[in-house]
Amino acid sequence: MPFIATNPATGERIAEYPAHTTEQVQARLELAATSFRQWRDTPIARRAALMRTAAELIEGEIPVIAALMTAEMGKTFAAAKGEAFKCAATMRYFADNAESFLAPETVATSARRSGVRFDPVGPILAIMPWNFPLWQVIRFSAPTIMAGNVVLLKHAPNVPGSALYIEELFTRAGFPAGIMTNLFVEVDAIEGIIADPRVVGVTLTGSERAGRSVAALAGAHLKKCVLELGGSDPFIVGVHADLDAAVPMAVTARVQNNGQACIASKRFIVVRERADEFISRFSEAMAAVPTGDPMDPSTVLGPIVSASQFNQLAEQVSSSVAAGAVVRAGGEALPGEGYFYPATVLTDVPSDSRAGSEELFGPVAVVHVAEDLEAAIAYANATPWGLGGSIWSTDDAEIDAAVAGLDVGVVFANAVVASMPELPFGGTKNSGFGRELSVYGIKEFTNIKSYYVA
Q: What is the pLDDT averaged over residues 74-85?
């Protein structure tokens, strides 16, 4: 079955790629295994030089890869250019820091010499989503490859051009063949790949359902796995919030990447003292979000990625409204071609409605009013997910209470939640486990090996 790219702004089919045959998959697995045996012994300085070359290639091609991402999944061209730049910066970060991050540690024991090494382990299967076609892959692969491992990429089927670009990027940068290997395979092939003895681990960024399936397969075959799954991130507005700063950032937090980000704020929890003003200003700002052609520089909100995702979001909203939710902005699918849904604000959302109990993967904000900060934090934690969260306040006591109290993997104060190379990224509860990025992420797929020399 071919892999087809469709432009969500127009519904037009833009490219088609054949799936790899069983024989091609086996050859690619063998290439990865063979390449690892060479790559693991390649000096880190050489790995870093190649990674910097790849970063330079991205920087020289930002308009090209950005246009491809916009065409395949609908993010605005401005956002796509930012994603490409971030990827290049992250590749440079790990090129610069991998040697110190992976340096053996000396531990004092009764031995003459003892300590810990961080050795590469082998080919890692990366199952990646469509919403950040370049960043999700580079976020994982830059540190993993710098650690001496190799990557087998099973990208989302609707961004095949981006998958090919990434594979070819590493080849053009001078990496040996097999360091980054693209696999055009269907979901039913994943079990066999995870089971293959040449594959030593798997990472997945995607839905909770996919995460459960991959974790079960990895466990059955005793393979290490890292999961970054869904989220319903809280955006808490405290008593001392600066609404002049918080309201525009609330809009950005909800509509970034067309509302299709795991770490996009989805639940806006406001203390009662500030609720009326925040809801009024936030709803007005969301209603004014420029929506349309993602290649237009003035556009802030582009289309939903596909007809199925669009229909699911529309049904989540309409059924929640039928259950009692109040629409403060948006709430109705936009007419015309493409999969455009407006920036939407819902209040008075029943907890058992779809908007009150499911992740909304699109530009729909649910606003909840809490009596005070303690109640806001409790409500924020009353969810099966725990990816990220933010607190908006000028008071350090409020900030510290939220940082300590939120049961999530990432907390930002007075800033939109983001992933960055310097800090570990990952979630708690049903949002997954393990960490990417930083010194912690680069060690996830290493053999943390103790040594003792008497």
A: 98
**How far is Cα 405 from Cα 320, in angstroms, rounded to an integer?**
29
Whether 1 has a pLDDT exceeding 90, the answer reads no
Tell me the β-bridge partners of 271: 370
Q: Which residues pair with 411 in a beta bridge?
A: 389
Average pLDDT over residues 22-39: 98
The model's pTM is 0.97
Q: How far apart are CA 81 and CA 78, in angstroms?
A: 5
Sole residue written with tokens 């993967």:
361
Judged on CB neighbours under 10 Å (0-12, 13-18, 19+), 308 is exposed
Q: Which of 262, 359, 398, 444 is catalytic?
A: 262
Asked whether the domain spanning 233-420 has the same topology as the one spanning 3-229+431-453, the reply is: no
Considering the candidates 83, 228, 436, 444, report the single residue annotated as catalytic.
228
Whole-number percent of the chain with pLDDT over 70: 100
pLDDT tens digits along 47-70: 999 999 999 999 999 999 999 999
pLDDT digits (tens, 9 = 90+) for 371-381: 999 999 999 99
Contact 241, 250 (CB under 8 A): no
Query: Tokens 């031995």 appear where?
Result: 111
Question: What's the fold here for domain 233-420?
Answer: Aldehyde Dehydrogenase; Chain A, domain 2 (3.40.309)
Q: Where are the domains of the chain?
A: 3-229+431-453, 233-420
pLDDT digits (tens, 9 = 90+) for 416-447: 999 999 999 999 999 999 999 999 999 999 99
Give the mean pLDDT of 210-217.
98
Contacts of 202 (CB under 8 A, 6+ apart): 124, 125, 126, 127, 194, 214, 217, 218, 223, 224, 225, 226
C-beta separation of 266 from 232 below 8 A: yes
CA distances from 219 to 68, 149, 151, 225, 307 (A): 36, 20, 20, 8, 34
- How far is Cα 386 from Cα 227, in angstroms, rounded to an integer? 13
Q: Look up 262 and say whether it is catalytic.
A: yes
Return d(Cα 443, Cα 116) in angstroms, integer: 12
Average pLDDT taken over every residue of the chain: 98
Q: In what order do the strands lie in the sheet with 446-453?
A: 105-106, 113-120, 446-453
Specify the CATH number of the domain 3-229+431-453: 3.40.605.10
Our answer to whether residue 228 is catalytic in this structure is yes
What's the confidence (pLDDT) of residue 161? 98
